[in-house]
Structure formats: C-alpha cells, structure tokens
Amino acid sequence: MVDIKFKIILIVFFSLVILTISIPEAEALIVSSGGSCGPYTCQCRNIFGVVACRATCNSSSCGARCKCGFLESKCEVLWCSQPYHTCINDVHYFNPQCSSISWASGIRCGYTQREPCTDYWTDNYRCSGSYLQRLYIERICGRSACIDYETWKNYDYCGSDYCGSWSSNYCKDNDVYHNRTCHDRGCSSRSCYDNVYTQEEKVEECDNSSWTDEYRCSGDWRQRKWINRGCSAGSCYATEEWKNYQDCKATCFPSVLGQGCQGGTYICKDGTCGFPLQSCSPPLYTSSGVVCECNIEQGTIIKACNGLGACLNVEEKCDVDCGADLFCQGLKPEDEYPGDPSKICCKGEEVPLPLPKWYELGP
C-alpha cells in the first residue's frame, strides 16, 4: 500500500515537471498590480506554498515585479532613474513617478509636475528721464527651480515738450496777437503726464489814434490831420482823416471886439489862422500903431499902420492885438513874465526846463 502511494506521488511530481517544461507560458507573472507602479508588494511561492521571494515598492517613484514559475521565483523593485529636477526648453520638470513597468521594457517614468519658466511683466513702474520703465522678470530654468532675474525696461516713451503751429492772427486789446497749443510732457510719480497750455504772443502793436503836425485850410476852418489806428481782422490799420481843428472866423482882433469884428476876424491861410492884411485906409480907422500883420505863433506885431494909410515893418514885440498876454504888452518874446518867473512872454507859456548835458545837441 505504501509503495502504491509513493508511486502516485512520483507520477504527480514528474507530471508537474513535464507540464512546466512543455508549457512555459504557464509561469506566473506579477508586475506591480498588473503593470502599474507602486506603492505595491508582490511575492512568489514555491510548489509547497511557501513564500519564495517578495518585492515591496512603497513610493510612486518605483515599481515592484515578481516572476513566479516552476522551480523559479524572481522578485525585484525598479526605481525611476531620472533626476528629481530637470529643465527642457525653459520648462522646469520635477517629481518623477513610475508610469508603467514590465519584464520586457522595464520601468517607465515621467515627471508629474511642470513649471514653465515664462518671462513676465510686473506691476512695478518707475520714471527714468522721459521714459516710463516697468519691472520685467526674465526666467532661466535652473537645476531645481525657475530662477527670476529682475530687469527695468523702457515701457513707454512719455515724449518731450513741444508746441503746435501758431494760429492765425487775431485782434486783442487793439493789437495783433496769435497763439498756439503747447504740451509739457514727461514722467512723474510712476506715470506719464501731458500738461496742455496755450501760449499767446503779441505780433504787432497797432498804437493809438493821434494828431499829426500837418494842417490845412478848408474855408475859414483850420484843419488838422488825424490818424485813426487800431486792429481789424487780425491786422493793424491806419487811416488818415482831416478834422476841423479851429474856426478862424470865430475869433476877432482884440482891438476891434467892441466894433462887432467888422473887418477884424481871423482867416485861414496856409493852414494857420491869421489876420488879414490891412491897407491902413481910410485914415480915420488906421491911426499910427494899429496892427496890420502879426506873428500869431509868437503873439508879436510885425507890421503896423503909420497913420498915413501905409503898413510898415516894426520891431517885433508882444502885442495883445496879436494874441499876447496883456501883462506882456510891449515886451520881447521869451522875456520873463511879469510877476511869475516860471513863465515867459508873449503868451505866458511855462519856462522850458534846461536839458541835461548829455541831451545837448552839437552844432
């Protein structure tokens, strides 16, 4: 009976050996839970059910694989060989992990985290001359992380001061002006500024209206030239106009005022109000000494009747009939005014102030 049992055992044993040799696909292959990676534990048992080998991977960066067959057991742990950090095209890759494992190709690993080292602008600004600068971060991928390099770069040109073209001329305060728009540009307080203002400039002074020293006669009127000055349509103008300045016939000789000015009124001649020349006749109206010609500007007598009907030259003296002040009667032109040394004859004008030496004109 014992021999029979022993024979049966031998038959079964050799049958298993033959089966193992003839069918190699029957060997058990355990690769970290079907080809994935750790953490995982795999093991092989021999034909007697005893654990022959065991492999344990406790990290996601490794994988365990066990190959179990007849009279064969092989268990091992494969680790990812990549460095923990790497740089590829300015991208920082890190944290390598097992992606798959097999007996044919071994372990495959890949990086599970990536950080693009991309340059970027910050929100920090500053001024540098006429430029607004902005802080720029340049990233170069380093061995273990992205490395930041700070650089201030010109971000915006704020421009320089300038003015536009002058406007057309226009009138203001009776003079000619023009203006233009100007820009005060620059950088301040971390921003560009552009202050706009108007610049105005006087182009020409048109002066005021005034009299000239030109005279003429128009009938019995003494006329004087008047210049009208001003600004119109952006330009100065000056127009001439003759204006009545003095009515000669409205003034009588002082000596004939009581006679109703018959034959004794002024007339206009050569732009000046003057006395008409008298013939000194008839004798009853032309007694000796009666004025027949005057220097009106000076107020002096030039000619007088001689009592015989003739008009003769006389010494030039102040005469009230020629417009002199009564107090200067008979005095010479520029004699001191009686009782008032600040005036002179014949008409009581103010004494002209002496000019300083540096105003004196040479002969």
Sequence stretches where pLDDT stays below 50 over 5 or more residues = 16-28, 359-363
Strand content: over 45%
Q: Can you count the helices?
A: 2
* Helix and strand pattern: HEHEEEEEEEEEEEEEEEEEEEEEEEE
From the N-terminal CA to the C-terminal CA, the straight-line distance is 178 Å
Could you say which structural class the secondary elements and strand pairing correspond to?
Answer: mainly beta
Bin the helical content.
under 10%
Q: What do you see in this structure?
A:
This protein is mainly beta and 363 residues long. The protein has two helices and 25 strands. It has helices spanning 2-22, 32-35, and strands at residues 28-31, 40-45, 51-57, 62-69, 72-79, 85-88, 91-102, 106-116, 120-128, 131-141, 146-157, 162-163, 170-172, 175-188, 191-204, 210-218, 221-232, 235-247, 267-269, 272-274, 291-295, 300-305, 311-318, 343-344, 349-350. Strands 12, 13, 14 and 15 form a four-stranded antiparallel sheet that branches. It has a three-stranded antiparallel sheet with strand order 1-4-5. The chain has a three-stranded antiparallel sheet with strand order 6-7-8, with no helix packed on it. Strand 14 and strand 15 form a beta hairpin. It is rod-shaped. The relative contact order is 0.05.
Based on the model shown, name its key terms.
single chain, mainly beta, rod-shaped
